[in-house]
Amino acid sequence: MDIGGTFTDVVLMAPDGRLATTKVPSTPDDYARGVIEGCRQILLRENVAPSEVAEMLHASTVATNAILEGKGARTALVTTEGFRDVLELRRIRVPRLYEPLYRKPPPLVPRRHRFEVAERMGPRGEVLRPLDETALQPIARQIDAAGIEAVAVCFLHSYANPDHERRAGEVLRALLPGRFVTLSVDVLPEIREYERTSTTVINAYVAPPVSRYLTSLRAGLDREGITAPLFMMQSSGGILDLETVLQRPALVVESGPAAGVIGAGYVGRRAGFENVIALDVGGTTAKASVVERGRYLTTDEYEVGGGISLSSRLVKGGGYALRLPVIDVSEVGTGGGSLVRLNAAGNISVGPQSAGAMPGPVAYGRGGVEPTVTDANVAMGYLNPVAIADGTVAIDLAGARASVISEVAAPLGRTVEEASYGVLAIANALMARSVRSVTTSRGRDPRDFALLAFGGGGGLHAVGLAASLGMRRVIIPPAAGVFSAFGLLYSEIEFAQSQGFLAPLDAAEPAALENAFAVLEAGVLHHLGRPADTIRLRRRVDLRYAGQAFELAVDMPKGAFDAAMRDALAAAFDEEHARTYGHSLPRANPREIVTLRVIGTVIAERPASHLAPRPEQREAATRPAYFGEDGWLDTRIVERHDLATPLAGPLIVEEPDATTIVPPGWTASLDDGFNILIDQTVEVPA
């Protein structure tokens, strides 16, 4: 189950790999209602008893929305004396270089709710000043009086010695029963006080809304008789049990985008494409990520909020630092529901405001009055003028056209189709920004990748976007409109633990390093609670050149930590550094270990998926569609199976959950995995 800004998607997999899908409108007042309704509908339609469900996998934007909308819990921060304002000071980074009056987002915890405690640990774990426990009692009284729901505790250098922080947590939990209290040593036991404080505060800020949502969802599913275990997608690509999510909700802040990337990696490998750009166009946002050599990329340099959520080592300061493993996704506020307006200069502006699920685009006939990207697609004939989403959403063609005319076309002195085509061109340009953030900004050429597009709007924009980026191959997977939900089916139960370990690479003590890894592995195995032979453990090391401020993660080879191992780690780090920054240093330059990390993955096999064939075959049809300089063209309306024989554009491929546009100059065909492959056959000027 995957919640989007406009629709909630549900995919059911049978033991033989057969898939059934459904889309229902999202319910922003209580997202759990939409999820439960989608489950009820698909089980009833497929004649599956609720008790037959073995496992439920879920991706949600509840945590993200709490941050973006400023609707998280009233949160307090308890920190070391002298570090009350670390959330204000942040890092000396400004994402908009030429905007001197730029204002950073306000801290999630206002200053009046940030409290200092006399204590001090040294960077090696030595006690420089004992913890003043008596100071915690008046702090607890102030927290209680302020109606605080969640408390974040972050003491300086607690990663080196957690004793003070753990004791403060014990005292505060005793004094504040019923409040959510989270410790930085449990969330991010690593160096850097700002990133550790920010991540711990995010964990506290989103915990109550996530808890309320998941409690409501679990209760609703139980009432339906669906009592199977519920797992949540992590931002890093694995899935977690419900209990862990309730304690560490920061791990699921970007769970929705992660699920689609997992699916893109699976489909790309099966189709023989190890290098793909995953493009997810939903109702509210467009998200891009890279799968390179069959593996998705992760990062812990991530910021959420501030207009665009992205990971960048060069552009920072626009959001809230979340230093946890996250699939490297760039997200912009452009989707099917994005509002279209004229700005002060009289130019077309698309998003980031969205019509959302209610009222939605004008074309949906639910009370929307402002035109959206979806309305532009309807006006150009791209979307079915009667109904979409397998007939569940009726389309108001006249209303969509009228909204584009009144708000865009008439003020610009253009026809409705010209204005609509301009809307799509601008939307594609904004989406290209997201793609470039994960390719050219990372030293990768998008022309070396295939574009794997999904989401309700992926097929509508994919070819136009690919052409603008010089890409020649587009892949539209089966179940494209519900693909993030599909991706959940191929995710794995995963848990990771990390620990700060600052030491020169060439002088690190092998016994100390092995002992630290052993402790982390024991913790991961204990948490997963499964036989060791069913869990795959992976060690990672964060390295940097001596004198650098930030590090890069590399996998640690198996074997003894000897000279050969050190050289192998240095070589892997150099390769990653060159890929990321364009250069590396000679081996004579010292390298430092900063953090150790262990990732445990439960080994599981899932059947190869396939869509059940649709029972009815509709007659061939055409309708006019607008293609810019080519004007209105009589366009064939086909289904996916019609592409068993390659067909040249223009085509419109209509499916229950999505629509794909194949313009002139491109040809569509099917591969053995039932993916639509769209290839450029005629050079189109950029």
TrEMBL record:
Q: Cross-referenced InterPro entries, in alphabetical order?
A: ACX-like_C, ATPase_NBD, Hydant_A_N, Hydantoinase_A, Oxoprolinase-like
GO CC terms, sorted: cytosol
The record's GO molecular-function terms, alphabetically, read: 5-oxoprolinase (ATP-hydrolyzing) activity
UniProt domain Hydantoinase/oxoprolinase N-terminal: residue ranges: 2-174
Acetophenone carboxylase-like C-terminal domain boundaries: 511-672
Domain of life per record: Bacteria
Q: Name one GO biological process term.
A: glutathione metabolic process
Membrane-crossing segments per the record: none
Annotated ranges, domain Hydantoinase A/oxoprolinase? 196-494
Name of the protein: Hydantoinase/oxoprolinase family protein
Organism lineage reads as: Bacteria, Pseudomonadati, Pseudomonadota, Alphaproteobacteria, Hyphomicrobiales
